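Student: I would love a firmer grasp of how sequence relates to backbone shape in proteins. I am handing you a single protein, as its sequence and its fold in token form. I am told such tokens are a discrete way to write the fold. I hope you can help me see how the letters and the tokens relate. Take your time, and here it is.
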Amino acid sequence: MTPDGTYWDRQAETAQRAEREAKVLSLLQAQLHAVYERIPFYRRHYDQHGFHPDQVRSLMDFAQRVPIITKQMLRDDQAEHPPFGSYLGVEPSALARIHGSSGTTGKPTLYAFSRRDWNYIADVMARGFYTSGVRPADRVQLATVFSLFMGGWGALLGMERIGAAAFPIGAGETERQLELMYRVGSTVLVTTPTYALHMLEMARNLGYDTAASPLRLGVFIGEPGASIPGTRQALEKGWGIAVRDMATTSEMTPWATNAECSASNGMHVIQDEVWTEVVDKDDPGKCMQDGQSGAVVYTHLRRESQPMIRFWSGDESHMTHDPCPCGRTYPRLPHGVYGRFDDMLLIRGTNVYPSQIQRSLLETSGTGVEFLIVVERNGSVDDAVVQVEHDPSLAVPDFGEFSRTLADRVQRKLKNDTNLTFRIEILRPNTLKRSLSKAKRVDDRRPKYRPQVG
């Protein structure tokens, strides 16, 4: 691929919708036949649902007829067919890399990548990061976890393909991160929004002039946050950078297929590499119209090793096909991924997401960026507490009076935004535990139902 300074692949990124969707349909049909013929997992799954690839003659057919798959299905299949499940798709000798994620039980779900796919992933990751503004002249600090988890490795692949100078320092050792950021002259930071805010907080405590850092751009991955106005503003002003959001899931690597451009209009969905649908959360065969919120479902169009076909991500978002000033004709998630159905809390009959709480807190002056939602059961009633640190830049001579006043404002703000009354605990800065990657925002202590066995 030969980038032209604006686009990684001008022809693909500026194609007309009808042209792109015709291409996508052809790729979907080929992928469906391939997985049905050579991957036992999909043949069993489709036969059980009375589906055959010949039934897909349109994108609507694809949405209405092809059954979804879930993370739990993948975990169960790997347990039954170790180590990679019956959805591997290639001979084990063709594998180039093995990664994974821990899942709810702590037992890794393994991701296996063929040599062909590893090379393909690098090119698509490069397109996503190029869309976000990374260029060959950049020095990119990858403050991401380099372990079994795929996220940091995918980012490294993209930077190497672009030709940028990659600085894969990993997550943690924040004081050292900062010293090296200024010494190396890192121009781009890639990490989670939570860790970037933690770095910002520590940098100020150590006396760095953060607004005059060498950074010009931050690309934020791994969790919702960079599209939340308060978080974005804190990152932009704190570091003096442009902020770009980027997200899908490790299962969908190349995961940089949702990437925000310089227009800051939300994440472009690179539909000709990973077909993305927003569907009814209760009926995955029903596609939502532009502007309607729903569940995000992803499909690999080209991966051969462990291809995901209609993968239920658990993310919530909505899509638009409105034009973007950057000239790309991909649809967009205009507010990014703003919730996860898996993270949704049901408190006293009301659904609420941690990202909703975060948005409200950041819109309340006097609060810091760190918070925790603690939910307990008091008799038959849910007791929900929001613990939030106050803004560390504030001088607080009388903490008691300050905390009472701020707690009252926070409580009224949350009541207005969520229709729930939370107890509020204002904490001093650096009270809550910091995260090096994804932040833990919920401590749900309510008893869980456990069925009796035997």
Summary: The radius of gyration is 23 Å. The CA atoms of residues 366 and 391 lie 5 Å apart. The domain at 344-444 is CATH 3.30.300.30 (GMP Synthetase; Chain A, domain 3). Residues 449-454 have pLDDT under 50 and may be disordered.
